[in-house]
Design brief:
FMN; monooxygenase; two-stranded antiparallel ribbon; 9 helices; TIM Barrel; binds flavin mononucleotide; oxidoreductase; 8-stranded mixed beta barrel
Length: about 325
């Protein structure tokens, strides 16, 4: 059977009705994000990367009631393993788990009861450590905030994940979108953007410095000489900056990838600059293709300032996906 897949910007996604194509249904797809190596090219080397965002209950508001949907999706590891394995079988590049540190919409009972999977979720790096043991190839990307975490623990978490997954870790760097999360971290108010991004910049320098603590050949493990590690192959960071003070070194050996694949999702001026300086990929949800192209040109234009080439950076537009046997059927799903 040939399938027609219609992509729409994810911002327009409000329902994913009657989707019964098994793999997508099993993925509980909220939206798919895709990056093109050459976004304006249609040549034969055109290559698409696919990343999916598994959620407990998918993108359709009533989707969890569908007869084919999983019956229990609350903190259900088996469900998440099934999603990750389906995505891997379908040759997706990554699974990505967005995240925040708070219960969403609790002050609005109607939304709170209706919006299904938002109330509780696995801490994503922990979840990915589990998924790593049930998958072999797929990339494992988690959101972690630089605003309410400490760089040493973040460096350690992603370092461990990269080892546990044999080099498949990815970090979606955010400064926290939901202001209410601040109240879970000793603050009455969210840190303003003008502070969040400079802190994130320093945080990222520290985290990278910590990942560079150990040379890849530091652990010699020489049974003949009795030398387990070479102390000249580790260095202390001794960072003291405006926001952070971190001595180091990191108590995780050099990551299989060196650094995890770094994603960024900020769209503001400060967010774009952070992406250009630190990230490998930018998640971009724009209302139109033209806006998407303008964003791409803007961020790619900033790369040279940091000695980076546009080819080394990907823009990842979000898409809602409607699958039908024909274009008309996909259109029909989109319209209803
Ligand atoms: C695809 C995508 C995924 C995002 N995931 C998260 C997330 O998991 N957690 C979060 O706090 N913010 C997330 N955001 C929000 C961004 O981090 C950012 O706050 C937002 O795009 C506004 O940009 P600004 O911070 O530059 O103003 C996401 C944004 C996009 C486009």
């Amino acid at each position: 059977m040939s399938l027609y897949i219609k992509h729409i910007p994810a911002i327009h996604l409000c329902c994913l009705p009657g989707l019964t194509w098994a793999p997508l249904n099993a993925l509980s797809l909220r939206y798919t994000v895709a990056a093109f190596h050459h976004p304006l090219s249609t040549g034969p080397d055109h290559m698409m990367n696919l990343i999916t965002v598994p959620t407990s209950t998918g993108g359709a508001v009533g989707g969890w009631r569908h007869p084919d949907a999983w019956r229990d999706t609350v903190m259900n590891l088996d469900h998440m393993i099934s999603c990750a394995k389906t995505a891997e079988r379908g040759k997706f590049d990554c699974v990505f788990f967005a995240d925040g540190n708070g219960v969403r919409d609790i002050s609005n009972p109607v939304l709170f009861e209706a919006l299904r999977d938002r109330a509780v979720s696995f801490e994503p790096v922990t979840l990915l450590a589990a998924l790593a043991q049930h998958t072999q190839d797929i990339g494992l990307v988690a959101t972690v905030t630089t605003t309410y975490e400490e760089p040493y623990t973040v460096a350690r978490k992603f370092g461990s994940l990269d080892h546990l997954s044999k080099g498949r870790a990815g970090w979606n760097i955010v400064t926290t979108a939901r202001p209410g999360d601040a109240r879970n971290f000793g603050r009455d108010k969210h840190m303003p953007r003008e502070e969040r991004y400079p802190r994130a910049d320093e945080f990222l320098d520290v985290v990278k410095g910590l990942w560079d603590s150990w040379a890849s050949d530091a652990f010699v493990q020489n049974r003949e000489t009795g030398q387990y590690l070479d102390s000249t192959r580790v260095h202390t960071l001794n960072h003291e900056g405006r926001y952070l003070k971190v001595k180091g070194p990191l108590n995780v050996s050099r990551l299989p990838q060196g650094y995890p694949v770094m994603f960024s999702a900020g769209q503001s001026e400060l967010g774009r600059e952070q992406a250009a300086k630190h990230a490998d990929c930018l998640f971009a949800i724009t209302p139109s293709k033209e806006d998407g192209i303008a964003l791409m040109e803007d961020v790619k234009g900033r790369l040279s300032k940091y000695g980076r080439s546009p080819e080394a950076f990907k823009i990842i537009p979000g898409s809602g996906v409607f699958v039908g046997r024909t274009a008309e059927e996909a259109d029909e799903y989109h319209e209803c």
